Write the structure tokens for this entry.
Amino acid sequence: MHKNNLINTVKGKLTHGHTRCVHYHSQLDVIAIKFKCCGEYYPCYSCHTEEATHPVEVWDKNEFNTRAILCGVCAGEMTIAEYFACNYQCPFCNAAFNPKCKNHNHLYFAEF
């Protein structure tokens, strides 16, 4: 899928492009997460909670090979396992990701 089409599929309260939202909008806040419950990309848990009409489901550890992380800079999609292994840097374009996102892993992924 073309970068603009993929980025345009991200739902939520987006601001400055690159998947930044009203809740998280630093230079490093450039990923979106595909939520297991709906298969939709959102920049954060709060955006999903405010806009979706269903509860969040977290990804189980046995589903970490699912492509569920989107780089907002290059639109590269990575698996959850690849995201955890990338040391907060996109494996496709080398964009830096926010290392503080690890504080919210339990909101998206089981085993945290």
Residues 45-51 form the longest helix (7 residues). The longest strand covers residues 67-71. Strands lie at 31-34, 41-42, 67-71, 77-79. The chain has a mean pLDDT of 92.
